[in-house]
Amino acid sequence: NAGVTQTPKFRVLKTGQSMTLLCAQDMNHEYMYWYRQDPGMGLRLIHYSVGEGTTAKGEVPDGYNVSRLKKQNFLLGLESAAPSQTSVYFCASKTSGDYNEQFFGPGTRLTVL
Amino acid sequence: AQSVTQPDIHITVSEGASLELRCNYSYGATPYLFWYVQSPGQGLQLLLKYFSGDTLVQGIKGFEAEFKRSQSSFNLRKPSVHWSDAAEYFCAVVLNSGYSTLTFGKGTMLLVSP
């Protein structure tokens, strides 16, 4: 079991460029989440999905889009990157039930110049 | 709205000493509470969780936490800290029941001195 994996691990973009971050999980989890982590801010929820084909906005969704075409994958897109999107991005997944933990990937460090 | 407060940004503890990391939450009903740990350059790992029952919960790596409804707190403790415990610790509460979205505190960085 690989758990939750994220691709790529590091990326540098120029302002205005686009990219997609891939999250994959092999635990057959229904729920998946994208967070960003900034110094002193903790983790903030960007978007989430409670099943294949469904997505919803979190706390900080502006500038991001997501898709969940397959149950095991959750993609995070930046259409036109901005320096404010420089951050570490984490994906997580879980089974249904509020008492069940979220399992986190190792993160993607993104720098936008 | 629900929120989570971790009052201490940094804490330094001597190796072998006891540890308590504070977490306060605001929520009307009994919350689902979690403590996660993040080692440098790593993702988050669950230490323990609480959702009902015994208010003292045991976790991995020798950690425990106590839920105190009267104080709206869920403090993390460890009787004897090891150098490998140096990491950032996050308290979190379920924000949206049904979708299980989490609200995280801003984290407490634990430094362990020799």
Summarize the structure.
The complex is a heterodimer of chains A (113) and B (114). Chain A is built from no helices and eleven strands. Chain A has 113 residues and is an all-beta fold.
SSE layout and pairing:
The complex is a heterodimer of chains A (113) and B (114).
Chain A (H helix, E strand, L loop, with lengths): L3 E4 L2 E4 L5 E7 L5 E8 L3 E10 L2 E4 L7 E3 L5 E6 L8 E8 L8 E2 L3 E5 L1
Parallel strand pairs in A: 2-11
Antiparallel strand pairs in A: 1-3, 3-8, 4-5, 4-9, 5-6, 7-8, 9-10, 9-11
Chain B lengths: L2 E3 L4 E5 L4 E3 L2 E3 L6 E6 L5 E7 L5 E3 L5 E5 L4 E6 L8 E10 L4 E4 L3 E6 L1
Parallel strand pairs in B: 2-12
Antiparallel strand pairs in B: 1-4, 3-9, 5-6, 5-10, 7-8, 8-9, 10-11, 10-12
Low-confidence stretches of chain A: none
Query: By helix and strand content of chain B, what is the structural category?
Result: mainly beta
Radius of gyration of chain B: 14 Å
Mean pLDDT of chain B: 92
User: Quaternary status of these chains?
Assistant: heterodimer
Q: What portion of residues of chain B is helical?
A: under 10%
Number of strands of chain A: 11
DSSP strand content of chain A: over 45%
